[in-house]
Each structure stands twice: as C-alpha cells, then as structure tokens.
Design brief:
Chain lengths: 358, 358, 358
C-alpha cells in the first residue's frame, strides 16, 4: 500500500466504535523521577510519600512512587487519540481504581475496551463508554477507570452501532481498593508528613477550606498537558480558540483536579494515597489567569477490612476560581451551581490511623 | 595576571577566527531522562522510541535514547558563546548527521572547526563557517553539522583573514547515515508506535498536513532555550528587545524546528529517527503568541544499502504561524515566501519498512 | 480526637515561638538530576560542575552535585510553613554555610532552631531568628543558615516571649568553609569550565558587569518556587495580590538570587562553588516582566588554609531590573538605593588557583 493522503490520525468517530472493541493505545511511556519533579513544579504538591524515598521506605515501599494523579493523567493522555479526539464533551468518570504504585523506571501502557454505546436522539453523535486500563511493564494494573464521552459521527447517515448499556458503579467500595503490597501506614511520621490529623480525626460531614490558592498561567497548563502527551486540541491552539465559543484555550480538566489535590495538602496532608475516583464533574471550564481555590467535605469514613494501620475517607473536593472558600461555595441560592465552581470531585483517599501511628 | 576588567566573554568577532581553528566549547552536559521529560513537556513530542524504554528495547537499543533534535539543541547551545555571540544572522546549515544515540547518563561535549571565512563587501562583517561536532563520554560522535553565520567585526579596519571557501554538501546521502548499532526496525510495533503508515506507504511528492497546532508562550521558549544553555541574548532580554527592530524577544529557531517535528508525529509517526538535516531556513522570526502549524512533503524515498527493515525519506517540513496548512502554504502568488511561513526545513528520517514489520 | 475544623496549618505566630524550640520541617525531599535540569531551564545556569558528571569527576567528586543555590531553595522551602507563613517580611540572612554536596538520589530534610526573639515596639508582631539546617539521608549537614523574619502575633494581647538576642556573625570566615571531601580544584579545565580567569586573576575592588540579562515570566517564577515547595502565598495568588499593595504576585527573592548567580557565569565562571552567604538584602520586590541584569564586586580575596588549588572570593552581587549595569548601579545621588536595584547579596565563592590549574 502506498500513495497520497490519509496519513494523519482522524481519530475514531461514533460509528467507528464497536461494543467489546479493544483499543491498544500508542506511545508507551517510561516514567522517571523527572515526571514527579516537573509535576511538583507545575502543581506545588507536597505529599511526603511522593517527595521522599526515605519517607516511602518507612511505609514499606521500595522508594517514592509517582503521584497518583500524575499516573492518572499519563494513562488518560494515551487514550485521547483513540477515544476522544472527536469528542464534543467529557461526560463523566466512574469506577476509577488505583492499582500498583508507579515508580521511576516503570513503563506505562494503556488500553481501552468499549463497554457502552448509545446514539443521541439528534443522530449526529453518540455516547461512548470505555473502560481504560493502565499497566506497568510487569503487566500489573496501575489504574483502571470508566469514562464516557460524547463523540461526533463522521457521517450522520451512518448506521448507529447497536446500543449497549454500560454497568456504572456508583462508587468504588473499600473492598476494591488496591493497597500497595507491603505498604504499612503505621510507619507514617506526622511531623515529616506535615499533617498531624490522621484518619481518626476526621468526621463525616466535616468541611475543610484549603485556604491556599494558585493562579494558573498558559505555559503551565500547556506544559502539564504535554507532559501527559494529551493531544486534545482545545488546550493548545489559541489561533483556533480565538474563533470559538470561549475565545480562549481551555485548561485540561485533569490539571484542575491536580491543583485541587495539591491544595488539599493543607488540611488533608495525611491523605497520602488516592485509592479511587468515584465520579467527577467539570462544572465550568478553567482558563489561564484563573486563581484556583479548593475546599473538601468528608462524605464517608471507612475502615479497611483487616487493617488497623489505615482507613479511607470518601471526599468531595470542590475547585473554585477567583473566590476564597471559607463559605464552601457550591450551589447558588437559585439551586444552580455557583458560577465560580470549576470542579466537583468525588474520590477516596487512604490515611494512617491514629491507633498505630504516633 | 590580575586586575580590573576583561572578565566577561566578549565572544569572537570576525577577525578573531582562523581557518582550521578548533574551538572546544565550554560546559559539558550530562543528560538524563529529565531532559527528555522536559522536552516532552515543552514540545508535546510523542515518538514512542524516545518515550519508552521497552519500545526502544524491542528495536534493539538498550533503552530510550533522547530525542534527536534535543541532542541537536544541546550541542548547538554549547557552540553559541564561541561561534555566534556576535552573529548578525544564522545563514544556514548543511551536512548535519546524527550519530550514536544519546542516552540518559551520557555526557555531551562539543567542538567546532572553522572551515570557511569570507569578509562581506562592506568590510564590517564576515561569514564564518564551522563544522561542529558533538561527542559522548566515549568519544563517539553523536552529531556533526556545518553552520554558517554572519559575524560582526570588532574593528572595521582589522585585516580580514584570508578567504577560505568551505565545501558544503547539497545533502547527506543515505550511505552517510549512521544507523545506531544493533538497531533493528523490524521490531517496530505500529500500534504502540501510533503510526500504521510505514516507509512503503509514502510516495515522493506526497504532502501531509499535520493538522495539530501549538501556541507558544514566552516562558516555554525561554525554558527550552535555557535547557539547551543557549545564551543568545535575543531570546531572553525584553528590556533590550523593546528598543529593537521587532520590539520583542525572538524565539530560538531550533524551538520552531522541534515544534514542527513534534507536530509531524501526526502523519509521520513512524519516522522514529532523524538521520540528517540537509539544510534549513528560518524564513521569518517567531514570537511568543504565535500558533505553530506544520506540513511536510516527501522529497525523496531512499532504501538503505543492505537493509530490508528500514528505509529513509527526505522531507521538507514547513512551519507556519496562525494559519492552518490544508493548502500547504509556502510561496505567495508573487513568488515570495508566504509571510506566514516560519521555517523551511530539509531533512531525512528513518522509518521501518513494511516487508518485515507487521 | 475527632471533629470539625482546625485541620489546616495556620502557621506559627510570634507568640507561638520559644527560644531553643526545634522545628522539624515536613515533606523531606529526594532530589534527582531532574531538579538540576529544571533549575537549568528556569535560570540558564552554565557552571560546568553542576552540568557534567565527567567535569565533576575530574575535580574528585563522584558526579555532578546539584547547584548550591538549588539546595538552598529546597531547604528554605521546607522551613516556610513553620517559620514564615505569617511573616510580614524577610529581614535578613547570616552565617549561611554550604556543607556536603547534594547529589541526585539524596534525600534532604530540614529543621530550624529558634535562636532569637524580640517583640516589636508596636506589640503587634515580633522578630524571630532561626538557625535552619538541611541534612542528607546520612545525617550530614548540607546547608546551615540564620534567617530572621518579622512575624505577626495572632493575638496582640498575648504575652511576648522573653527577648533573646541572637548571635549573628558578620560573615562566614574561610576557616568555616566546608570544602567537599575529596574535591581537588587542580583538575579544573578552564576551557570546558568556560572561564579562563581563575582566583589569581581577580583583585579586591574589581567590579564586573555580567552583561547578560533575563526577562522573567509568571510561569517561570511560579514553577521555580513550587519546585522548592515554598508555599508563601504572595508568589502564587493573583486574585488576592490584585487587592494588595503591589497589585501583583511578588517573585520569590531566592529566584532573583539564582538569576544573579546564573548571570554571573559571564565574568565569574570559575566560581564553581558557593561556600557561604554572608548576608543579603532584597532591596526592592521583583515582578514578572522585569528584566534582570547583574553586576559583582570583589569585596575580599582569601587564600584557604593549607590549599594551593583553591581560593575564595567574597563578592557583592547586585541584581538590577530593566537597566544595564555598565555603570554598576547601587546608590542614587541622594544616597538612597537606586530604585532599579532588586538585590544586594554578600557571599563567598571558591575558584581554582592558577598555580596548579593550567
């Protein structure tokens, strides 16, 4: 086969997807300490587990693993060219579980399986649901999540694939959490960890204003998004964006998640491991120049079966722009989302328990 | 020797150069995975060979080498203080060959030999041609290229050095390509590589619109240029630039080359190794805020002697600002370069051949 | 203990400090080559010792150590949440000594001891002086310095701690310099080092215009400051800063020190090791958009006891904004600091001596 044209990747359109289809994603990614360093410089994260090899060893790990969300973004980035290049919108996430920690030197590959398909009533697009999987070079799962996106059709008259209804978990249960092998939270040092408040100290319904804030620059979100090799055009092309709905580049929603998580260190510093993301919504787009604040609420407090050293919190973390969070903004008096809210994230974290630490 | 003054490097002026002179450049550079990670964050490159150790091993290399152009910029950066600190203009490149791959842990040194000298008719400057060489710590050549620059004289009345006419190759022939020892392209996985189109699939004269685009920020090109320790003042000093011809900092032309190459992944993803740069022209200066698009044309298609696993393409890649490339902009109707064109690069790349891969 | 509120770190207020109190700082930091690479990309530093493993080995070190000021910033960053979160102003530094070099793979921890306390006459704040110490994973001191800050009281009526007068050295004497074990400056290669002028070549009173300049972007200083995990709010929150005195984010003063040091390579390139910081003053705040120039003066020239291979210079380095330094700006005709001056730094550096090196 040879000849003119057709060399660029047009991405998959709605009618290209098939239920059960497995998409092996391109550009496997060897990660290094540099990924963590650059992620730190872009987000300001301060969790000691990802910052210090010595701290990680005291918890039974061989060295500092990469930040959980950095792993999420690297896996997610790989899926974009096959899953969401023609996406109109990211509709949701579910059932996201973090597996084996990712260490410098590991190589991450990703694949996705189509588990849901539904044409929209207009017939011009459809909702595609995939289960994406990140693996390390040993074949261990480092991340698993379900994501559904609204994807355009190439040809409106193309027959729609038969509808398939995906099975979406409401949340990831503690029994499904993957505790890293050998990890013992009783080695947690609250002083070096920077957080005296352990699992025992949180109460369901408690809300925490994370106080700190970060103003975001174009160069920062572009560098972060390229670090993940996420190719979605809306983040990078001002020439095209100028003519679009917002007139501006849109910040990768995952970067807002990372900023919210980094800000949450102040108040949730002992939440050293993200176990799961139960769901999340990008309520409003984020742009360069926005100053990101965040607050969190404890939705649930869960012991872990057979573990006295570690417990889980289910959290709602809300990222807000250009507005301090002492009054925990979420919904306006009209019942609609507060226009300052960017992100409403539901996720679960692991914290050392007081019984054994300190 | 002691005393006041004369401590800063004034750079070489035209009358300081001598034919045959060898300039050993300062600041040897140990490279690491971090260079590749930061380069990825600054350019968005997605070539699997430079991204994944496992992918590189499948092709017979010990691990992922650094991006070829990153190596070019690092060698080039070293030469600036001795060769082009007083340059008025970069006039051209020729005979650029990539040699041994550069791996994390390697230390790169650079030297240049003066191979051409010619005073301009005005008597105020002259053209200096150097052959620059980058070597690793084993003494292996990692890069070799010829570059000519227009350099001011310190003293207009200084006698010009005797003119020497350099020998400039029109292009680098396939016989001169340095295929990395042990590299076997038949291990190329087109799915992980992200590019189903191999050497066999391209035709001479074929043109490819790379579709994607990148808007460039001041922080990004400054960080890239400092990463290479390139000290050319025009890239960094807005205070001085404000009074200059453009009123702005000029983006290092090499960064435009890197962006064009990164964008070319979409359409030329299997071109995993740059073998040579035959020539190139920075048609217009690039500034922060520009959105870079790119397109390529296949100038030639060359088998490699004794190799069934790999072939070469000679490409023209054109970088364009603030304008999509579906109509392959290059020359206006008046025969002059389209003012949107930034770069017109002539280079050769290696791709796996279909016969043996997949 | 459980329940609502109080989870965020309010920082220490003046009345929280006690003389002799030891503060162990959070978030130990494993460093890697990536820290040096990113620091290079952010500052443009070109000192060969920190750039090349081979160059470092020729000087008797196992590999390239991290830039001294990078180590300073990493230690300093750790102290912020405990020492200066409620600081009104950084008043000064003294007695800063660099100890064991920090290598990729090392883990740096920090602690501070309160050595001075004095309530201000207004009764609303007080001066806290701490001695901060950075250590590697072997317990070796990598950095030691004294810093005093003006800290607010939480409660103006709170009784002030008993005043304690700290002992502040005027400077660090050569006898106190920590020469890295095994380091022999006679292996210095002036060509690769990029600096023909060695210790012998400098004279007391000599002034050097470093010529080059760097325009600073918001993304750059934010990334640098987050790289150090320095959480001081004034550097990151434009939403809050807009309502403040300057209307803008203030650049971390340490970044200005780093830029001055990087610029000083041109004229002081053989000053490959910072031995001490004797004192320093941030004369004016620095903002994004400023173009930083620098000049230096040799304050003193000191042989080192028992060493023929290396000598020390005590330097004043002055960073200036938006103004070339050929006339060495410092004090206006009115005797007040020139408003363009940002930084007036007094520090000591080590240079190879001519006797033994080439």
């Amino acid at each position: 086969m040879s000849g003119q044209g057709g060399k660029t990747n047009p991405g998959n359109f709605f009618e290209d997807f098939r239920a059960g289809q497995v998409l092996r994603h391109a550009t496997p990614r060897s990660v290094s300490a540099a990924d963590q360093v650059l992620y730190t410089a872009l987000t300001g994260t301060r969790f000691a587990l990802n910052s210090s090899d010595e701290f990680a060893r005291a918890l039974g790990l061989p060295r500092a693993p990469l930040d959980d969300l950095l792993v999420f973004h690297i896996v997610f980035g790989r899926t974009v060219p096959d899953v969401s290049l023609n996406a109109v919108a990211n509709l949701g996430y579910a059932g996201c579980r973090f597996g084996a920690p990712v260490y410098p030197g590991d190589t991450v590959t990703a694949e996705s399986t189509v588990i849901g398909l539904r044409e929209t009533s207009s017939g011009t697009s459809g909702v595609v649901t995939v289960r994406s999987l990140g693996r390390n070079q040993h074949g261990e799962t480092v991340l698993e999540y379900i994501r559904w996106v609204l994807v355009n059709k190439r040809d409106e008259s193309a027959p729609a694939p038969a509808p398939v209804q995906p099975d979406l978990p409401e949340s990831v249960s503690p029994a499904q959490f993957a505790l890293p092998a050998g990890m013992d939270f009783s080695g947690y040092d609250p002083v070096l960890g920077g957080a005296p408040h352990l699992w025992d100290d949180y109460a369901v319904g408690e809300r925490i204003d994370h106080v700190d804030a970060m103003t975001l620059e174009e160069a920062e979100h572009q560098m972060a998004t390229r670090l993940y090799q996420n190719t979605a055009k809306v983040h990078f092309n001002q020439h095209q964006a100028a003519a679009g709905r917002f007139g501006r580049r849109i910040v990768y929603g995952g970067h807002v998640i990372s900023l919210a998580r980094a800000l949450s260190f102040n108040g949730l510093g002992a939440a050293i491991r993200v176990a799961a993301i139960n769901g999340g919504r990008h309520v409003n787009p984020c742009f360069a120049g926005d100053t990101i604040y965040a607050w969190s609420e404890v939705l649930d407090k869960m012991p872990l079966p057979g573990r006295a050293d570690v417990g889980a919190l289910r959290l709602r973390s809300v990222a807000v722009k250009d507005r301090a969070c002492s009054d925990f903004p979420l919904t306006g008096t009209d019942g609609k989302p507060d226009p300052a809210v960017l992100l409403d994230l539901d996720y679960s974290v692991l914290l050392p328990r007081r019984g054994t630490a300190a």
